[in-house]
Each structure stands twice: as C-alpha cells, then as structure tokens.
Specification:
480 residues, alpha/beta, Fumarate Reductase Iron-sulfur Protein, Chain B, domain 2, FAD/NAD(P)-binding domain, 3 domains, 5-stranded parallel beta sheet, binds flavin-adenine dinucleotide, binds iron/sulfur cluster
C-alpha cells in the first residue's frame, strides 16, 4: 500500500465497555481490537526507515517490525519480534503511557493521530498468550546466581533478561503474590490480574525462581544474600511504596486511607467480593479522593465501583496540570466521578464516634510557575467549604521505604531515600545494582522495565567481565 493511501486510514478506536455498566463492576474497560481493526491500524504505519517511535520506547521494541508482521496477518512473527524485547507486553499494551512515549515520537502524530502502537501491542500479546506456547530455548547455564529484590516490572524484566543469558535468578518478593504495583495497585478494570499472572508464569517456565513472603532487610539482608547465600550480584527493585500523607488535622479518624492501602485491599486481597475474601474495605455512599495522578484516578474509580455516589476527586491544580493519563481522566468522567479542581483539603472532620463526616477544603488559584515548571497553586483566602464524606483517601504520592536501605551498610541514598546509581545502574556497593521507582521515585511501568533491561546488561557484564560502574571506579581508585 502506498504511503498516501496509508495516510488516509483513520486511527482505529479502542472498543470500551459502556460507562453506565462498567461503573458498577470491575470488568476490563478497554475490550481490545478485533482482528480486522488490528490489521487496519497496522496499515496506518508508514514503515519509516528511521523509525523515531523506537527511541520513545525504553525497552527498544522493533515497532515497525512487529507492526508490519501484524499488517501481513503473520501473528507468529509479530509475537516473536515483540517478545524479543518486552517481557511484559500484555501489561505495557494496557498501562504504558504511550502518548508520552513511543506514540509521541511517531511521525504521524505531527499530522493528526499517531499510530496506535500500544493498542496493537496489546492485541499481539493477547493473541500470543492464548494461541501459542512459549518457544524459549534455555541457554547453557553460566553458574552465576543473581538475587532480585522485588517482583514489580523492574525486577521481573531484569529477571527475564538475565535468565535469557543463562544466569540463575531468584526474585524475592515481600508480598504473597508477584507483580508489585501491577497486582496490588493498578485495578482489575485496567489491568486484569490474569494478564500479569500469565506473564509472570512465562518467566517461571523460563527458569526464574520467585519466592514470595520474603522481606529483604528482615528475612535476609543484602550482605547476607551475597556473603552467606552465595549470590554473585543483587538488583534492588523494591519500588517506592510508602504512602505520603498531607499531614492535615483529622488523618487519625476512622475512614481515612492511603490510596495504596485502599487499592491493595481491593486489588490484591479481593475485598470488593465478600463471597471470595475476608478482607474488609469500608464502603460509603460519599467518598473523597485527593490527588491528580494515576493512583488518585484508580482510587476514585474503584470507590465509584464500590457504590460511592458521589465519588469526588479533589485536586489542587487545574485539569491541564493533572499528571494522570488522559484516558483515565476521560474514563473517570464518563463513569460519573465528580471533579473538584483547584481545591485542596485542609482538615478532615469527624463525628462523635471518631468516623470521618466531611473534609474541609479551600479553593486555589494558579500563581507563578514553581520548580516543576507548573503554576503554583495558591489558596484563596476565605474560600473554605466542606464536602460531606465517610471515607477520605489520600493519593498525593509515595516514597522509598527505608527498611532495606537502612539495613544495607554503605548503600548511598539521596535526601529522599532513593538509591544513588551510576550510568551502569551500579550502586555504591560492588555487585549491587538498583532501578525502577526506588531510584527514580514514583514513575512509570515502562521506565521501570527499561531500568530492569539496562541493568541486566550491566549485571551480565559484571558477572562475565568483572566489576562494573561506581564500584569499579572505587576499586580502581583504591588500587592506585
Ligand atoms: P513496584 O511495582 O513498586 O514493585 C516493587 C516490589 O518490591 C513490590 O512488589 C514490593 O512488594 C516489593 N518489595 C518492597 N520492599 C521489599 C523488600 N524489602 N523485600 C522484598 N520485596 C520488596 N505506571 C504506568 O506506567 N501506567 C499506569 O497506568 C500506572 N498506574 C499506576 C497506578 C497506581 C495505583 C500506582 C501506585 C502506580 C501506577 N503507575 C503506573 C506507576 C508504576 O506502577 C510504577 O512506576 C512501577 O510499578 C514501578 O515499578 P518497580 O518495579 O520499580 O516497583
Ligand atoms: Fe510504546 Fe510502551 Fe509498547 Fe514501548 S512498551 S512500544 S513505549 S507502548
Ligand atoms: Fe510507524 Fe509511526 Fe514508527 Fe513511523 S514513527 S514506523 S509511522 S509507528
């Protein structure tokens, strides 16, 4: 097909569950392309020789390659190309912020709509999961052992990449189920657990050992893993899951949750289904969630599905500044979530039994830009008002949990508690590497996966050719 003909094809819409129906259940909202739509979308790709889209993908997928195979209806080849670079394509095809990654750099974005790379990735990944066995040929073992702390996207990707090179990999996970935020944070209606489970299972069949219910820093320390358990290298990918609170009066009241606790109860512990789980979660007809990112959006949409009406989102800046993905904001709005923009909670009010009864808020206006480049929200004096609610959920961010870093002597961290690494993702301790949110602070799935992949290269070099990165510099310096 000529490029001019390809340019005429409109971007294919992702089919969605009806908003009225989905606001009452946890079924996946995006339903996935039908085969014809997937092929048509693939035909929109111009097959650029210098494909800019690849530079926007932190794991470097050969995007025109898999898209061309899809356009030719050769799904086996499309899957081979996709799986060669991406350990979790069913996940990224659903939750990757494509619009600011690969699709932002697609040449077609300049003249209308970019190619729907993420939607096609999901299509090929789902097809591969259903239709063909994993064709992985195990490489000869190197005899080297690597421990990975945390089974989120960074840890899983690093594990898969290292097992491809013949290293014996053990992932230690503090929770009872692997996946990190993918299973405890992101709700079923955006990322079904079965998709994560299947991709984790593929890693297991490739020889990755995953041991749950082990807290590194408590069950074993990092020095114990290396000195007593015989690991030749460690990758720390324990995320940044410690919730930040606003520190406003009333946070001790019954009915106040961090978004992480609320979402974990529902997603990981199944609290929304009383017939299947003993885990309680407070359901209330009026719920307020505070924040403007993906976590806040997941919290408020989950609350809506648990019956809240209104489920209200308060955010101190305006809609344009919201960090959440545009699609999540649109879906939340369609599902009936009430948005209170330029609004900041200043106090949570309780009743005589110690339960939340309302949140007092103040209206904000945007002032001069702050250090982040976004206009600083400034309170409007005398504009306080109350929003009645029985549950208040804080989703204003998370930070590094200090447990692991405090039990690892010599591990350099910055003032926020994030681990400091060099250009090879090596930490200040020889043989110990780090990546994902524990280094970046809260970021994205695909950036964590990119870190996992890049670190696997560095660990492989370290294991096969000697000490890498910061540790090498220190060792070299002390040798002179
Ligand atoms: P995590 O996913 O946090 O995984 C770390 C793992 O380490 C966890 O399983 C944890 O239990 C384990 N662990 C922690 N400490 C220890 C220890 N001491 N010993 C053993 N194990 C330990 N990003 C997107 O790209 N798109 C989205 O739509 C999106 N939505 C999000 C929604 C929510 C609710 C949240 C919270 C985040 C969202 N993000 C999203 C961000 C994204 O999920 C994270 O950036 C990403 O998961 C970070 O990956 P990670 O591997 O570094 O850490
Ligand atoms: Fe784009 Fe994300 Fe897929 Fe990479 S993983 S091609 S950035 S959607
Ligand atoms: Fe296709 Fe866009 Fe990549 Fe070009 S930049 S190869 S059109 S996806």
């Amino acid at each position: 097909m000529k490029p001019s003909e390809r340019m005429k094809i409109p971007r294919q819409e992702m089919p969605e569950l009806d908003a009225g129906v989905r606001a009452t259940n946890f079924a996946e909202v995006n339903r996935g392309f039908a085969p014809a739509a997937a092929c048509t979308e693939a035909e929109r790709c111009l097959q650029c020789k210098d494909a800019k889209c690849i530079a926007g993908c932190p794991v470097g997928i050969n995007i025109p390659g898999f898209v061309e195979a899809l356009a030719n209806d050769d799904l086996n080849t499309a899957a081979d190309i996709l799986l060669a670079d991406n350990m979790l394509p069913g996940v990224t095809g659903r939750v990757c912020p494509q619009e600011t990654q690969c699709e932002e750099l697609c040449v077609r974005a300049k003249k209308g709509w970019s190619v729907g790379i993420g939607h096609m990735e999901r299509y090929v990944a789902d097809w591969a999961r259903m239709n063909r066995p994993d064709l992985f040929e195990p490489p000869p073992p190197t005899g080297k052992k690597v421990a990975i702390v945390g089974s989120g996207p960074a840890g899983l990707t690093c594990a898969g990449e290292l097992s491809k090179r013949g290293h014996a990999v053990t992932v230690f996970e503090a929770l009872h189920k692997p996946g990190g935020v993918l299973v405890y944070g992101i709700p079923e209606f955006r990322l079904p657990n079965e998709v994560v489970e299947a991709e984790v299972e593929t890693l297991r069949t490739r020889g990755v050992e995953i041991i749950c219910d082990v807290v590194i820093g408590q069950t074993y320390t990092i020095p114990e893993l290396m000195d007593e358990e015989g690991f030749d290298a460690v990758f720390i990918a324990n995320g940044a899951g410690l919730p930040i609170f606003q520190n406003i009066p009333g946070e001790q009241l019954k009915g106040v949750y961090s978004a992480n606790e609320f979402l974990t109860r529902v997603n990981l512990m199944g609290a929304h289904d009383a017939t299947a789980s003993d885990t309680p979660v407070i359901r209330a007809s009026e719920i307020v969630v505070c924040g403007g990112g993906n976590t806040a959006m997941d919290g408020v949409r989950t609350a809506r599905r648990l019956g809240a009406n209104p489920a209200t989102l308060v955010y101190r800046r305006s809609r344009e500044e919201m960090p959440a993905r545009a699609e999540e904001v649109k879906h939340a709005e369609e599902e009936g979530v009430v948005f209170q923009m330029l609004t900041n909670p200043v106090e949570i009010l309780g009743d005589e039994s110690g339960w939340v009864r309302a949140v007092r808020c103040i209206r904000m206006e945007l002032g001069e830009p702050d250090a982040s480049g976004r206009r600083r929200p400034v309170p409007i004096e005398g504009s306080e008002f109350e929003i009645p609610c029985r549950v208040f959920i804080e989703a204003i961010g998370t930070r590094a949990n200090p447990l692991l870093t405090q039990t690892t002597p010599g591990l350099e961290v910055n003032k926020w508690g994030n681990i400091v690494i060099d250009e090879n993702n090596a930490t200040s301790i020889a043989g110990v590497f780090a990546g994902g949110d524990i280094v970046r602070g809260g970021a994205t799935v695909i950036l964590a996966m990119g870190d996992g992949k890049n670190t696997a290269h560095s660990i492989h070099d370290h294991l096969m050719n000697g000490i890498a990165g910061a540790a090498a510099a220190v060792a070299a310096e002390s040798a002179t």
